[in-house]
Amino acid sequence: MRRTVRLGLDEAGRGPLLGPIVFCGVMGEEGALSRLGVRDSKKLSPSRREELAAEIEKMCDWQASIVWPEEIDRYVNKELLNELELKAFAEIIAEFDCRDIVVDAADPDEERFGRRLSELSGRSILSRHKADELFPSVSAASIMAKTIRDRLVAEISYRMGTVTGSGYPSDNVTVKYLEAALRSCKIPPPFIRRSWEPVQRMQSASKVKKLEYFSEHND
Asked: Which of 1, 82, 93, 209 has the fewest CB atoms nearer than 10 Å to its CB?
């Protein structure tokens, strides 16, 4: 039986208001990864992701790239977030000797994303939406990226001495943390994505509240 060894590429953390984006590439045998039980990381519990990540590390070659908010903001301010993703994936691809490569497309136009990544990497790339549900190697990359990002967000919480939540705008813990941090800090912490529209709205609201407080106590 023919064994299919493939390099799968995915990221975790494109949408959150704080913390990094983690890009990951996993090269492994698709049948073995399927038997391991890899799936789209969003459909797995944190504990199960940790278990699978430990197994993936043992049986596959993998690489990760971590991009922090300062660099994310530079690209977002120029409306080039997809270019940042393409650059990160191309750098990961360069670390592997593999010709069968699949990426979870970040662009609404999956063919355009694959074409641009092929141009940057010099390799033929298959780009698909929901690739983390279709290809075990991409599922594995999704799991590794999500696991690494979760660890980094937990480290941020530890260093700050408070709970920052998952970082996603739907997380009330994150929203409350950001509102408090933006009110109390003259300069927002470096792990906050200042280019994100919800963060900018919170920052504007915090400035208004500070002005109101100043006015009330200086009349």
From this structure: 1
Gap between the Cα atoms of 98 and 86, Å rounded? 18
Per-residue pLDDT tens digits for 85-99: 999 999 999 999 999
Tell me how far apart the alpha carbons of residues 213 and 156 are, in angstroms, rounded to a whole number.
30
Strand boundaries in the chain, DSSP class E: 5-12, 21-29, 61-67, 101-104, 125-128
Beta pairing class for 5-12 and 101-104: parallel
- Residue whose pair of structure tokens reads 């493939």 in the numeric block: 6
What is the per-residue pLDDT across 134-183, written as a single tens digit (0 to 9) for each? 999 999 999 999 999 999 999 999 999 999 999 999 999 999 999 998 88
User: Mean pLDDT across the stretch 171-196?
Assistant: 89
Spatial CA neighbour of 13 closest among 22, 1, 5, 4: 22
Measured CA to CA, the distance from residue 149 to residue 23 in angstroms comes to 9
Classify residue 71 as exposed, middle or buried by CB count within 10 Å of its CB (0-12, 13-18, 19+).
Answer: middle
Q: State residue 55 phi and psi, 5-degree precision.
A: -70, -40
Q: Is the pTM of this model over 0.85?
A: yes
Calculate helix-pair angle for 81-93, 110-121, nearest 10 degrees. 50
Residues 63, 24: Cα–Cα separation, whole Å: 6
The label of the residue with tokens 């949408």 reads 15
Q: Of 63, 57, 2, which is closest to residue 31 (Cα–Cα)?
A: 2
Instruction: Provide the residue type at 50 as one letter.
Output: E
